[in-house]
Specification:
Blueprint (H helix, E strand, L loop, with lengths): L3 E5 L3 E2 L7 E2 L4 H7 L7 E3 L4 E5 L4 H4 L20 H8 L5 E6 L5 E6 L9 E4 L3 E7 L5 H34 L4 E6 L2 E8 L2 E7 L3
Antiparallel strand pairs: 1-5, 2-3, 4-5, 6-7, 7-8, 8-9, 9-12, 10-11, 11-12
Helix pairs in contact: 3-4
Length: 204
């Protein structure tokens, strides 16, 4: 998303002993002198210049993977982590035994530990969380992020079929979930600066 900043530019000049008079500023010329292209800013009637920062544009220009559902993935629900992984055709490289916020056993599955941009899948009786990445600062991180996203699609489809895939597609394209249902359970999720997640509450 574009981040915006407002800059108010006002100048006055005093000549000799005369009364102060406002000096007319050519804001378009001032913006051009500052290296801004016309699409980089907007001049408001009150003299305010709204500048559009280009932070994150590289990421937004990447065509992120979208699952076409052509690869068969059986929908197995959300109760059994092993069944979800098997249906998605994914074998985790690492499994951590943890506890969730209610003290129930939780397992964290690292799908590929050869890259720090692996998809992560955590499962407990109370919740499920999927984490993936969408970094594009260089070709290697973009490639790893695309794989992370692909693996997340498979996990989501194993849990909730087409509905799961549509949720990941929506989130990976900048959408946000706030207690929206996935497979009948409320989910929260979004991407922020290349780090993405969806949390599904199984206790509701």
């Amino acid at each position: 998303m574009l981040k915006r900043a407002a800059v108010l530019m006002c100048m006055f000049a005093i000549t000799g002993c005369s009364e102060p008079e406002p000096q007319v500023i050519d804001l378009d010329k001032a913006a051009a002198d500052a290296g801004l292209a016309p699409e980089d800013y907007k001049v408001h009637e009150n003299g305010t210049i709204q500048i559009y920062s280009k932070v994150g544009t590289e990421q937004e220009n990447v065509s992120w993977y979208q699952d076409d559902l052509s690869e068969p993935v059986e929908t197995v629900g959300m109760s059994n982590a092993d069944a979800i992984l098997a249906s998605a055709g994914l074998e985790p490289d690492e499994v951590e035994n943890l506890a969730d916020t209610e003290g129930q056993p939780k397992k964290l599955y690292v799908i590929n530990d050869e890259t720090p941009l692996s998809a992560l899948f955590s499962h407990s009786p109370n919740s499920i969380e999927l984490n993936w990445y969408q970094f594009s600062d260089k070709p290697e991180t973009t490639e790893n992020s695309q794989q992370s996203l692909k693996d997340t699609y498979k996990l989501a489809r194993a849990m909730a079929g087409r509905e799961g895939a549509e949720a990941i597609m929506y989130l990976s394209n900048g959408g946000k979930y706030r207690s929206k249902l996935i497979g009948g359970y409320p989910a929260t999720g979004q991407c922020n600066d290349g780090v993405c997640f969806v949390h599904i509450d199984l206790s509701s």
